């Protein structure tokens, strides 16, 4: 009877535990959950845990297999790298055989191969020791899971069957009791509540014994699983410790090899190889050899007079279109060229920007010492003979401003001082085909000068200076009338300009008549100047060819008509 009470209490406790089993921790009520009707296989919890352990060990196996592959690949690549160093050197006797750079490269090759061997050893150790050990551990986990399934799993199945049979008998007991209370005459011997209760009591005892056996088996399995899991952790720790030990050995060995290479490389004197190379070679340049000076180089025609400049320095040349002067470096050569350079340094300006062949040119007269600017003109002629007005200063001025019918071009040059200009002019006149000189000015009086003074010209020199500056009254009148006036000389030269009348005829006022008288006077004065120029040319021809009676007669006639003085090549004579 007491046993029946204890069984009923156990049954009630199991029912109460099943109601609040969701709020109780599995680790705190494993036995209670094992006998709960909704959890008939408590061994599944242990099986799930060690299945997770099996997956972890598998990942660790894959990890170490990857490390082994890496180490093996490093070993292969380091072996290839060692083959890059080709010793002894193929360059022959360029380097020392011993005690030099070649010995260091021997060490690099050998130690690189040693490093490759170290990595290969680590790869083999990981594959043969760590990976195989972990694979055995995984096999043990599988065996432990199978043991749990065989032992505890069967007992859990038996408990489930006993519980189902107990529930059936308890249901039959309730049915028999109900029949007894409702229809007592219909109760059979098997349906007697007493007999049914005895059957329930015996079944519950059997169920409890089966559950107790399951509980004992679970306790043993839990204890063994705890110990087995501890062994798993220790096995993993041992595998990692083995890897760390071999890895440390590898790192220390490789580091020592590289340090040894670094010490060998640092111990080599930087100049040892060069000293040995310089001692062996006989074709190296002696450091005591002096540098060559291009100034002392002698070559044919170096001292020929034609290669040296006759004159060099700075001059200003008037631009054709802008009418402005630009200063450049000029060189006058013995060959008769006047070269213009951008700089006086031959390295910066190797080629001339402008060249003028003087033997084909006519040199105009220089400006006077009292002039405002120090300049002279050069006219280019195709024949270089200066025939038929080719050397006249009037045509030269026409060429400078782009007017007239000259056969060549003309250039205006200006110097910084009168002395500098005369030096250039004297050197250039020795190379030109012919040159012109200005005659001495004569005092003149008459209606022309009166007319000039009447229109505001105080003197001839002052009027000519205004023409040089380009702001004279004649130029303004010239623009109004449509006529073109060409300036023949500077203020220090007494030549007249040429005039071409405009296309329209206009009425002349008193002021215009005065201007007309001025122009006529200038034309007369220009005629006298041309006569004097002819006298100068005739003298040059007399000096060159001895002259002729006709030439002397024409010169005397021109001198008589001009009544002036001419100069030829710097020599003056009065007629």
Automatic annotation (TrEMBL):
<dbReference type="InterPro" id="IPR046868">
    <property type="entry name" value="BAR_4"/>
</dbReference>
<feature type="compositionally biased region" description="Basic and acidic residues">
    <location>
        <begin position="542"/>
        <end position="558"/>
    </location>
</feature>
<feature type="compositionally biased region" description="Acidic residues">
    <location>
        <begin position="459"/>
        <end position="482"/>
    </location>
</feature>
<keyword id="KW-0597">Phosphoprotein</keyword>
<dbReference type="InterPro" id="IPR046869">
    <property type="entry name" value="SLM1/RGC1-like_PH"/>
</dbReference>
<feature type="region of interest" description="Disordered">
    <location>
        <begin position="1"/>
        <end position="28"/>
    </location>
</feature>
<dbReference type="InterPro" id="IPR001849">
    <property type="entry name" value="PH_domain"/>
</dbReference>
<feature type="region of interest" description="Disordered">
    <location>
        <begin position="542"/>
        <end position="575"/>
    </location>
</feature>
<dbReference type="InterPro" id="IPR027267">
    <property type="entry name" value="AH/BAR_dom_sf"/>
</dbReference>
<dbReference type="Pfam" id="PF20400">
    <property type="entry name" value="BAR_4"/>
</dbReference>
<dbReference type="Pfam" id="PF20399">
    <property type="entry name" value="PH_20"/>
</dbReference>
<dbReference type="InterPro" id="IPR043453">
    <property type="entry name" value="Slm1_PH"/>
</dbReference>
<dbReference type="InterPro" id="IPR011993">
    <property type="entry name" value="PH-like_dom_sf"/>
</dbReference>
<feature type="compositionally biased region" description="Low complexity">
    <location>
        <begin position="1"/>
        <end position="23"/>
    </location>
</feature>
<feature type="region of interest" description="Disordered">
    <location>
        <begin position="456"/>
        <end position="507"/>
    </location>
</feature>
<protein>
    <recommendedName>
        <fullName>PH domain-containing protein</fullName>
    </recommendedName>
</protein>
<feature type="compositionally biased region" description="Gly residues">
    <location>
        <begin position="566"/>
        <end position="575"/>
    </location>
</feature>
<feature type="domain" description="PH">
    <location>
        <begin position="308"/>
        <end position="433"/>
    </location>
</feature>
């Amino acid at each position: 009877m007491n046993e029946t009470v204890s069984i009923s209490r156990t049954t009630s406790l199991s029912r109460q535990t099943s109601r609040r089993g969701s709020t109780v921790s599995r680790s705190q009520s494993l036995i209670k959950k094992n006998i709960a009707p909704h959890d008939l296989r408590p061994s599944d919890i242990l099986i799930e845990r060690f299945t997770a352990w099996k997956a972890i060990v598998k990942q660790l196996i894959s990890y170490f297999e990857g490390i082994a592959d890496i180490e093996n690949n490093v070993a292969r690549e380091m072996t290839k790298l060692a083959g890059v160093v080709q010793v002894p050197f193929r360059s022959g006797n360029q380097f020392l055989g011993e005690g030099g750079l070649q010995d260091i490269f021997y060490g690099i090759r050998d130690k690189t191969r040693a490093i490759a061997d170290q990595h290969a050893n680590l790869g083999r150790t990981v594959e043969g020791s760590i990976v195989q050990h972990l694979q055995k551990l995984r096999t043990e986990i599988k065996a432990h899971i199978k043991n749990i399934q065989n032992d505890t799993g069967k007992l859990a199945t038996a408990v489930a069957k006993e519980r189902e049979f107990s529930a059936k008998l308890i249901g039959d007991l309730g049915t028999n009791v109900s029949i007894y209370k409702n229809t007592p005459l219909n109760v059979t011997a098997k349906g007697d509540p007493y007999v049914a209760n005895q059957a329930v009591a015996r079944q519950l005892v059997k169920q409890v014994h089966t559950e107790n056996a399951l509980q004992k088996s679970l306790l043993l399995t839990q204890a063994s699983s705890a110990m087995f899991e501890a062994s798993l952790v220790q096995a993993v720790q041992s595998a990692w410790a083995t890897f760390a030990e071999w890895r440390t050995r590898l790192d220390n060995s490789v580091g020592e090899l590289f340090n040894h290479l670094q010490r060998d490389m640092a111990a080599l004197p930087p100049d040892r190889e060069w000293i040995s190379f310089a001692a062996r070679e006989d074709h190296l340049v002696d450091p005591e050899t002096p540098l060559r000076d291009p100034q002392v180089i002698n070559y044919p025609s170096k001292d020929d007079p034609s290669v040296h400049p006759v004159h060099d320095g700075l001059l200003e040349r008037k631009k054709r279109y802008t009418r402005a002067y630009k200063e450049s470096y000029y060189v006058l050569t013995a060959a008769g060229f006047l070269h213009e350079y951008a700089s006086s340094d031959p390295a910066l300006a190797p080629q001339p920007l402008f060249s003028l062949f003087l033997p084909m040119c006519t040199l105009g007269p220089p400006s006077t010492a009292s002039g405002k600017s120090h300049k002279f003109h050069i006219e280019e002629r195709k024949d270089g003979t200066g025939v038929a007005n080719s050397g006249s200063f009037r045509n030269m001025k026409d060429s400078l401003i782009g007017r007239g019918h000259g056969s060549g071009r003309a250039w205006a040059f200006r110097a910084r001082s009168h002395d500098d200009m005369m030096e250039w002019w004297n050197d250039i006149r020795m190379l030109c085909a012919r040159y012109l000189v200005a005659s001495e000015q004569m005092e003149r009086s008459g209606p022309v000068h009166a007319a000039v003074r009447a229109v505001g010209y105080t003197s001839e020199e002052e009027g000519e200076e205004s023409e040089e500056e380009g702001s004279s009254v004649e130029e303004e009148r010239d623009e109004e009338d449509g006529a073109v006036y060409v300036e023949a000389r500077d203020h220090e030269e007494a030549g007249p300009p040429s005039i071409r009348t405009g296309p329209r005829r206009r009425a002349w006022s008193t002021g215009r008549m005065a201007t007309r008288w001025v122009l006529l006077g200038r034309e007369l004065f220009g005629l006298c100047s041309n006569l004097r120029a002819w006298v100068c040319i005739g003298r040059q021809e007399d000096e060159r060819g001895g002259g002729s009676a006709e030439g002397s007669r024409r010169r005397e006639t021109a001198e008589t008509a001009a009544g002036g003085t001419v100069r030829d090549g710097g020599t003056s004579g009065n007629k």
